[in-house]
Design goal:
Chain B: It comes from Panthera leo. The structure holds 2 protein chains of 2 kinds. By secondary structure, chain A is α/β, with parallel strands linked by helices. Chain A has helices spanning 43-47, 68-73, 94-109, 122-127, 139-151, 162-165, 192-197, 222-237, 280-293, 311-320, 395-408; strands at 52-54, 61-63, 78-79, 83-87, 112-117, 130-132, 184-189, 200-204, 254-258, 297-303, 323-329, 346-352, 369-373, 378-382. In chain A, helix 8 (222-237) runs parallel beside helix 9 (280-293) and helix 9 (280-293) runs parallel beside helix 10 (311-320). Chain B contains 9 helices and 9 strands. Classes of the chains: A alpha/beta, B alpha/beta.
């Protein structure tokens, strides 16, 4: 089974009025099929990107979000070319953890990283990444492998048995580029040599605000314009969209991580006032998505939606993103002491999953999901109601448990939203 | 094109009506399957289609279209389909100053007044061909979706004006059709979106409304479709006809059934 999306070389867009003239279309949204001009070499182009795998459903190229549990809920992983929006929890504890998992996964897989933040220096963020979980006795082998990976050109082109080239290479260490999705130990830091061996670009908003603008002032805030230019620059100069004739077309994924988008530190005032600049963030998301669709990149954005005053913006932002996951932590809320939730640290809501190249999509039946952060692992589980072990099953105790389960009702808004609590 | 939906709407590609504005709206669910239906329907009906696709890329529609039996690449090459790919062109417009007005020019401007460049694009695309080739049956404008224009800085009135101009040209002057998708934000207080939705509802001949089930998620029934036939130009004393069906989306088609009659239940 090797249904892999291949790199399209311009889908014959001769009649289109607005096709960018002559540019090679690099998008991962094309299914492998009989190619008019293709040869066998085109199959091997996207196949050998580390850390990706094709989706079972539609051949879409997927990358791991860093959390295998979340990958499973999203239908296998995050599709290349799409945006994953994380609605932050109240104190930004778990969402920043998910952000770090995403970046750490990029380092392990050898992807290029682009870290944008207005609060912390990207170099500091990278120092804080969690360490991958390894068996101790193969850790030494892995260190050696990590050095050899960068130099060895292992893609020997097979002419006869070319299908074997598509099989993942079996490697000794549990942390290897052929594996999809790794586990991380939140209590340890990523080894320094891995960080230094990785390729990353940082965008720290306070530092970049002084250079000149060569775009007419549109309604985007300054910070967003600079960030878009930065991202577009990296994509163009490193060949992620294949349009730069001087750079060889990239065979790697660009992982973009943007932290706290929409917060006042970016210069946006939607979190401060209700009548703020209501189009800046949505325009930014639209152009960003345009950039992602035409390049080999995937983006994770964390956004403090609980602070946005104008609720209409939240629904617009949701419509403009591909995958939306909301985190709700129990810290400081009344649910912390609720016996229903005593094993968990918070709830996770999958608010939207995209239907890419398809009428249907993979959606899990389980809508009530909770997460907990144990010492090493961040797990997502189905929320179970604890058994009612009291001697007399009194009316009042049932009411207590029924209250929170009513609140879980709205969390099923992926396929169809229901607000009414129907008492069965 | 979903044959069951054609039966419900009582149309076939051969006898497609002309001069109609169809409004698609979705509330609490994803109504994009309706867009795919109408795109393949009008391509099969041999109409010239101008598709303003603001929310997804060309290959997405192409791959789904192939499942439904039309090839967008072939249609584009032979001139039946004019495709404006919003995401890709937005990058071009935003980062590079364009020599001539681009349909998405409003992305560069701080206070874009109206959607005139976009209207000019549509008018140019659906211009009747004079040189005696095999003429297409009627021009069709398909927009996916209009709520994105609100997110990009246009006011509801500007979008309504755009649709009005398009209706005058496409529906009245050239006897074509318009199909547009608008998201219904439900109870989130998106005033502009409500203005747009109400304004368009009053002008449309046919409203297809895909809603989520009020009871929440269900594996076998993905939502409910409300079909409303209207006659906006002649106020009638009789009530507009309306039907409600529930549906389930499958890989290549959508099956419709009466409320409560899902095959999983029977």
């Amino acid at each position: 089974m090797a249904a892999v999306a291949t790199c399209g070389t311009g889908a014959g867009s001769t009649g289109s009025m607005v096709a960018a003239g002559g540019k090679n279309n690099v998008t991962s949204f094309q299914r492998r099929g009989p190619r008019a001009s293709g040869s066998d070499s085109s199959y091997s182009r996207l196949v050998s990107i580390a850390g990706t795998r094709p989706s079972v459903r539609n051949g879409q190229l997927l990358v791991s979000t860093g959390l295998p549990a979340l990958d499973q809920l999203l239908g296998g992983g995050l599709a290349v070319g799409t945006v994953l929006l994380i609605e932050e929890d109240k104190y930004n504890i778990y969402s920043s953890l998910l952000f770090k998992y995403f970046l750490a996964e990029g380092i392990i897989n050898g992807h290029t990283l682009l870290v944008a933040s207005a609060k912390e220096d990207p170099a500091d963020i990278l120092q804080e990444l969690p360490a991958p979980l390894l068996d101790d006795n193969v850790k030494k082998d892995f260190d050696e492998d990590a050095c050899n990976h960068k130099t060895a050109e292992s893609n020997i082109k097979m002419k006869i048995a070319w299908r074997y080239q598509l099989l993942p290479k079996m490697e000794a260490g549990p942390v290897s580029s052929s594996r999809f999705g790794h586990y991380y130990d939140a209590s340890k830091k990523m080894p320094q040599e891995l960080i230094e061996a990785s390729k990353w670009h940082g965008f720290f908003s306070p530092e970049k605000s002084s250079s000149t603008l060569n775009i007419e002032p549109c309604s985007l805030t300054h910070g967003y314009i600079k960030l878009l230019q930065f991202i577009q620059n990296i994509i163009y100069e490193e060949g992620f969209d294949g349009s730069n004739p001087q750079v060889k077309k990239q065979k790697n994924i660009l992982r973009i991580g943007i932290q706290n988008l929409g917060s006042p530190l970016w210069g946006d005032d939607i979190c401060c006032t209700e009548n703020g600049n209501s189009h800046s963030l949505t325009k930014f998301l639209y152009v960003l998505r345009g950039l992602l669709r035409t390049s080999l990149s995937a983006c994770m954005i964390t956004m403090p939606t609980h602070l946005i005053q104008n609720k209409a913006i939240i629904s617009r932002v949701t419509n403009l993103s591909d995958t939306v996951v909301g985190l709700e932590s129990f810290i400081g809320s009344e649910r912390e002491t609720n016996p229903l939730y005593k094993d968990y640290h918070g709830l996770i809501h999958i608010r939207q999953i995209p239907r890419l190249n398809n009428l249907i999509y993979d959606v899990s039946d389980v809508k009530d999901l909770a997460f907990k952060l144990k010492k090493k692992l961040f797990t997502i589980e189905r929320l179970h109601l604890p058994p009612d072990l009291s001697d007399t099953v009194s009316r009042s105790s049932k009411q207590d448990l029924a209250e929170p389960s009513k609140l879980l009702g709205p969390g099923c808004g992926v396929m169809a939203g229901g607000k009414k609590h129907l008492d069965f | 094109m979903f044959p069951e939906l054609n039966n419900l709407l009582n149309t076939t590609p051969d006898r497609a009506e002309q001069g109609k504005l169809t409004l698609l709206c979705d509330a609490n669910t994803d109504g994009s399957f309706l867009v795919h239906h109408f795109l393949s329907f009008y391509l099969k009906a041999n109409c010239k289609v101008c598709f303003v696709a603001l929310i997804q890329s060309f290959s997405h529609y192409n791959i789904v279209g192939q499942k439904l039996g039309v090839s967008l690449t072939v249609a584009r090459e032979c001139g039946q389909l004019v495709f404006l790919e919003g995401l890709k062109s937005s990058v071009d417009v935003f980062f590079r100053a364009q020599a001539e007005p681009h349909p998405l020019q409003f992305l560069r401007e701080a206070n874009a007044e109206n959607l005139q460049p976009l209207y000019e694009f549509v008018r140019e695309a659906l211009k009747p061909v004079d040189d005696g080739e095999a003429a297409w049956r009627c021009p069709v404008l398909l927009v996916d979706d209009l709520s994105v224009l609100l997110s990009l800085g246009m006011g509801a009135v500007a979008v309504l004006d755009f649709i009005h101009y398009c209706r005058a040209t496409v529906c009245w002057e050239r006897k074509g059709n318009i199909v547009a998708l608008v998201h219904d934000s439900g109870d989130t207080e998106d005033e502009e979106n409500n203005i747009l939705l109400n304004g368009l509802s009053h002008q449309s001949h046919l409203i297809l409304r895909a809603e989520g089930l009020p009871t929440g998620f269900c594996r076998d029934v993905h939502g409910q479709l409300r079909i409303l036939w209207r006659t906006p130009s002649q106020p009638t004393t009789q009530r507009d006809r309306s039907l409600t069906y529930q549906y389930k989306i499958q890989d290549k088609s959508v099956s419709f059934f009466a409320k409560g009659m899902s095959p999983a239940v029977l």
